[in-house]
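Researcher: Please translate sequence to structure tokens.
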Amino acid sequence: MSRLKNAPVVHKMLKIPRAVFENLIEVCKREFPNEACGLIAGVRENGVSYAKKIYPLKNIAQSPFVYETDAEEVYNAFLNIEKSGLSILGIYHSHPFSRAEPSELDRRSAFYPDMIYVIVSFEGGIVDVEAYSWDGEKFTKQSISIEDGN
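Model: Translation complete:
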């Protein structure tokens, strides 16, 4: 199936099974006080992205304010996602000390308009998770639905 160049995927909602969502939160908590990062894999149907699995990546920057991934680790995750028959839906990272909204650095490093960007915040000790789409110029908040079952 081909798509017109520069025609980004339209995301209406991100649906995540409860077990995958809880795993995402736990992975981010384990990296605290540093930012956690990784990939979200699943399938897309009619504008809805169905997350099936997360692929945690090591934050080689080991920083609470920025994340950086190892190219070989990302490549291996891409291969595993492809072998599993899934697609890369998005990128997640945590904000240990700030809101679950894109920072200026997040805006400058958003290169993939077809991805959903999920941010997990621990600001003030409260877990907050938000999803955003990127159109090449701005982020737009997307709905997240935590689903029972898979």
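Researcher: Any highlights?
Model: The longest helix spans residues 18-31.
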